[in-house]
Design goal:
It is a single chain. Helix 1 links the parallel strand 5 and strand 6 (94-101). The strands form 3 sheets. This protein has a 5-stranded mixed β-sheet with strand order 5-6-4-1-13. A 4-stranded antiparallel β-sheet has the order 2-3-7-8. Helix 1 (76-88) runs parallel beside helix 2 (110-125) and helix 1 (76-88) packs across helix 3. 36% of the residues lie in helices and 23% in strands. By secondary structure, it is α+β, with helices and mostly antiparallel strands. It is built from 10 helices and 13 strands. The two termini are 23 Å apart. The structure holds L-homoserine.
Amino acid sequence: MTNPVRAFAPASVSNMACGFDILGFALQSEGDGHLSPGDLVTASEREPTAGGCGPVRVTAITGDEGRLPLEAERNTAAVAAKALVDGEAPDAAVDLEIEKRMPLESGLGSSAASAVAAVVAVDALLGLELPAAALLRYAVAGEVLASGGAHADNLAPSLLGGLVLVRSLDPEPDVIELPVPEGLTCALVRPHAEVNTKESRARLDRHLPLERAVTQWGNAAALVAALYRSDLELLSRALVDVVAEPVRAPGVPGFHAARAAAIDAGALGCSLSGSGPALFALCDGRARARRVAAAMVAAFESDVRVNCDQLVAPLPAPGARVFNKEV
Ligand code: HSE
């Protein structure tokens, strides 16, 4: 039996306004000597027959206030890990311990962080050294369980770090790592509320008017061009979501006040992080991002009297990694 392996996968911002299901970036708090928001998963080998259960078992979960299921079929990390074991090492049996170090249902890719940390830990435990595309394919199984849809705009940045475009998952993940202009910084604010991603996705329009689709893909293409050109004015014009945000914003009281406060404080753009309720604002520089985050928090508190957490996160941030010691 090899030694247990402990892996961390960071929280992430998905959609980036105009990139529903295709764009996202990893998060790391500025000046954070400790771990930023994310999940830690420890994987250990066990005898295949021990426990009389399937190839993957969840033995403990901490940091979730007892809300996440231990049953492997209902647990995002276990479903992703089982997909990997079934596909690559069908004789192996693995135990997982999950440490949640981020809030649930916050729009920060909590389920993706679980799935990514699990596949990275199991890959290292079994000495497989799988390519990122294969890890992503297995992690998608966990995301489908959590959100009801196969998308990797949280998974890919959580795995790879940086800011990424998921062109397609079919037939294999096709992920493009995008350049990040110098100084680009995310101001992130999380009101103390929750949004269930599966329910939120179910409410989205399945059929878009062509004009709205054209607007969205024009902005998504412009955002990519802006990143390559380090053109922050174009980036600012492109950070508009006409697909998901109009449906979801009414479910986040204070959204419009907070976004207006972000723009007034000098943000390049602001939208929901994933399905919310967290909001992200992209800013030119850390000092500006701190002012923008403070303005958004003040707006939430005065508009709807909701307390918030805030995070200032310089881009690009590192992705998932294996730890050999206590963190
Ligand atoms: N792109 C996804 C969504 C992210 O907006 O539903 C949340 O899982």
